[in-house]
């Protein structure tokens, strides 16, 4: 067991989802006082999203994590207007959130070629600056990767998320019979016959207390913020992390997972959710599934089994509940179908809401425009106004 843990620790060490960088815009160029020449502006520092980039590649390529743009050219007789300094572009993966050293959000890069200006170059010397150049803006930034996917797999360790991902997609995650097999996010794509694709993220397993950063904690929870929908994956036989921790039934597992999401960020509970009940190939699985369904249909009848601080403000209403076996393939096709149906329904709902809002804005705009027009009986004479 110790040997496995060491190998996995090294593996996790190769995955980076946050990075601190020093950036500085280039200094401006010198002006030319005698002829009134202006120095060139210093180069700017940009952060640019690139699909094939990772934070590990960025760190390996620039171990000092220091990025400075080029200086503006000095004004001279042959070129009174100095040329602008060379911009510095920092390539980062898609899904990056950028904050300054005080934790203030600068922006997000959610698609290929998105770019954000981080540090501006200084102005070149000119009359207003007594022909002396200004230094570029200096800024320390934090890059935080939050995975973007259609579906995020949510479950305790050993629920079978990695096995499920390998069944429904072309991803090849590490699969083993010990806790925390997944120590870094794994992305897979479900391919449909009509070439439709759905991205699925297998994320590090939660444990009780994850909201307080226990176990993988925030390293897991922050990644599900950008997934469109959640797929809860639970072991029909329940879960026990170790002999020192309490055994939890499948129903208790769902309640605890819901609570962890709520405590980390309540908005996560508003995401559409589905439930995959895994390991249905085990003995007595069908009987346990019937018990679980009864509990999910009447959750309030069973919440007395929990301590008050473990009960979520509201229980999750699953759009689909699918019994599966990631080992035998039972229920996998139905699960794929449900995932697509749920995403399509949600997209249609969002489109309807968007168009409805646009129509409402148009109606309001027309009403305001119409009300501003003078009526036929409007009194325009200042004399009449006084009367």
TrEMBL record:
Molecular-function GO term, any one: magnesium ion binding
Pfam families xref list: GTP1_OBG (PF01018), MMR_HSR1 (PF01926)
Subcellular location as annotated: Nucleus, Nucleolus
Domain of life assignment: Eukaryota
Entry keyword set: GTP-binding, Nucleotide-binding, Nucleus, Ribosome biogenesis
The OBG-type G domain, residue ranges: 149-344
InterPro entries the record matches: G_OBG, GTP-bd, GTP-bd_Obg/CgtA, GTP1_OBG_dom, GTP1_OBG_dom_sf, OBG_GTPase, P-loop_NTPase, Small_GTP-bd
Keyword GTP-binding appears in the UniProt entry: yes
GO cellular component, one term: mitochondrion
Chief location: nucleus
Positions of the Obg domain: 13-148
Gene3D superfamilies (UniProt xref): GTP1/OBG domain, P-loop containing nucleotide triphosphate hydrolases
PANTHER family: DEVELOPMENTALLY REGULATED GTP-BINDING PROTEIN-RELATED, GTP-BINDING PROTEIN 10
Family of the protein in this entry: Belongs to the TRAFAC class OBG-HflX-like GTPase superfamily. OBG GTPase family.
Protein name: GTP-binding protein 10
Source species: Pteropus vampyrus
Gene: GTPBP10
């Amino acid at each position: 067991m110790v040997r496995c843990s060491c190998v996995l620790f090294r593996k996790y060490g190769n995955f980076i989802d946050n990075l601190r960088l020093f950036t500085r815009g280039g200094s401006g160029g010198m002006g030319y006082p005698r002829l009134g020449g202006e120095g060139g502006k210093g180069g700017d520092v940009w952060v640019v999203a690139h699909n094939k980039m990772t934070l590990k590649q960025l760190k390996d390529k620039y171990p000092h994590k220091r990025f400075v743009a080029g200086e503006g050219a000095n004004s001279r007789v042959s070129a009174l207007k100095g040329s602008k300094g060379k911009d510095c572009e920092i390539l980062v993966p898609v899904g990056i959130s950028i904050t300054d050293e005080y934790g203030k959000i600068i922006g997000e890069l959610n698609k290929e070629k998105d770019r954000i200006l981080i540090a501006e170059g200084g102005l070149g010397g000119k009359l207003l600056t007594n022909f002396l150049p200004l230094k570029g803006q200096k800024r320390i930034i934090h890059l935080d990767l939050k995975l973007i996917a259609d579906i995020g797999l949510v479950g305790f360790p050993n629920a079978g998320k990695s096995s499920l991902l390998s069944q429904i997609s072309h991803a090849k995650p590490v699969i083993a019979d010990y806790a925390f097999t997944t120590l870094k996010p794994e992305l897979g794509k479900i391919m449909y016959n009509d070439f439709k694709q759905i991205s699925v993220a297998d994320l590090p397993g939660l444990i009780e207390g994850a909201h307080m950063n226990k176990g993988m904690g925030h390293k897991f929870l922050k990644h599900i913020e950008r997934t469109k929908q959640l797929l809860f994956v639970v072991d029909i036989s329940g879960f026990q992390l170790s002999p020192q921790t309490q055994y939890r039934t499948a129903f208790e597992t769902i309640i605890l997972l819901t609570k962890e999401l709520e405590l980390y960020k309540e908005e996560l509970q508003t995401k559409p959710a589905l439930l995959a009940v895994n390991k249905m190939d085990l003995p007595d699985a069908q009987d346990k599934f019937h018990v679980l369904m009864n509990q999910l249909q009447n959750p309030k009848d069973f919440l007395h089994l929990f301590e008050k601080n473990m009960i979520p403000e509201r229980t999750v209403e699953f759009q689909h509940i699918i019994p599966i076996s990631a080992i035998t393939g039972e229920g996998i096709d139905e699960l794929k179908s449900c995932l697509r149906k749920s995403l399509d329904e949600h997209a249609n709902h969002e489109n309807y809401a968007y168009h409805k809002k646009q129509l409402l804005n148009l109606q309001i705009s027309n009403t305001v425009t119409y009300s501003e027009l003078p009526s036929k009986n409007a009194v325009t004479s200042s004399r009449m106004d006084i009367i």
